[in-house]
Design goal:
Blueprint lengths: L5 H24 L6 H26 L1 H6 L1 H22 L5 H8 L2 H13 L5 H19 L3 H6 L4 H20 L8 H25 L9 H29 L1 H6 L3 H14 L5 H23 L1
């Protein structure tokens, strides 16, 4: 991925969020059959196996840099790999896709707040307006442009879990953008995937042996694991991490608001659901917000 143009970065970020939209829908669809920690654990094991042929040489070459930055890598693995996706799957056990998408849409704002608190990152007026526009677009899609749905929306414990997951990934995004240049992205990702699986291993054992929710040996489970490992992990993370490097965490975070946009499109194409006017209005607001925020970020 040699290009450094913003357009290339925005394409990579869009591909990543498209993969994550499918992951979000799949996590809810299989929540009754596949245990959340088991799905997360095998996601990272399979993702590491898929990435290994390309990343092992890079990881070996930079082994000294990896060892020197083990504390940073441990934090990245804990927040971005182990905690984020596991908490999303746990939250989707008890909340709806509507609520989960709404809570997840707070990520751009949380990334900006995290950068401000940890590193005093500047936030321009145009970026703030862009975030507000995109969030309004997300709310338009979720609430179907009907204010009556706002009054009837009920939040559950699962919503708080998804919010915690979103905050964890905001920390990951901000820290990844500041990792040392000596850390090759592919070798580093392999280490993070393995470390995330290792962190989850005792929780996976507890879920299987104590909680009695063993990973089922079915084609559905195998297909779900392969998608979240190959698409939502290897492909999406490579694209998103490269996007962060090219345009920074603030602009990259704005693209998370494409999640409900892509989810709506996928529902129309794959599930035959109707395309409504509120979909078009919400998408227009999301794209306007992203354009405004990225345009302001590019000027700085």
């Amino acid at each position: 991925m040699p290009s450094k143009s913003p357009a290339w970065a925005y394409l990579l970020l869009s591909v990543a969020v498209l993969m994550w939209s499918g992951n979000f829908i799949l996590g809810r669809a299989v929540h009754a059959e596949i245990p959340p920690i088991g799905l997360a654990f095998w996601r990272w094991v399979v993702a590491a196996a898929l990435l290994a042929p390309f990343a092992v040489p890079a990881a070996f070459r930079q082994r000294a840099a990896l060892l020197a930055n083990w504390r940073l890598l441990l934090v990245l693995a804990l927040f971005g790999v182990a905690a984020f996706n596991t908490l999303v799957y746990v939250g989707l056990q008890t909340t709806t896709a509507v609520n989960g998408a709404l809570v997840n849409a707070t990520m751009p704002a949380l990334i900006v707040i995290t950068g401000l608190l940890l590193f005093r990152d500047a936030v321009g007026p145009a970026q703030a307006v862009g975030i507000a526009l995109s969030f309004t677009g997300v709310a338009t899609i979720i609430f179907r442009a009907d204010l009556a749905l706002v009054r009837t929306l009920q939040f559950t414990a699962g919503d708080l879990v998804v919010l915690a997951a979103t905050a964890c990934y905001a920390v990951y995004v901000v820290l990844w953008a500041r990792r040392p240049a000596a850390l090759d992205p592919y070798g580093t990702l392999l280490v993070l995937f393995l470390a995330g699986a290792a962190i989850l291993a005792p929780f996976y054992a507890w879920e299987s042996l104590v909680a009695g929710r063993a990973m089922p040996l079915t084609w559905t489970a195998a297909g779900a694991v392969f998608y979240v490992a190959a698409g939502a992990s290897v492909l999406a993370w490579i694209c998103y991490n490269r996007g962060i490097e090219l345009v920074g965490p603030g602009q990259a975070g704005m693209f998370i608001n494409l999640n409900p946009v892509f989810a709506s499109i996928l529902a129309v194409i794959l599930l035959g659901e109707p395309f409504r006017g509120y979909h078009a209005a919400g998408m227009a607001l999301v794209f306007a917000g992203i354009w405004l925020a990225t345009r302001a970020g590019g000027r700085r």
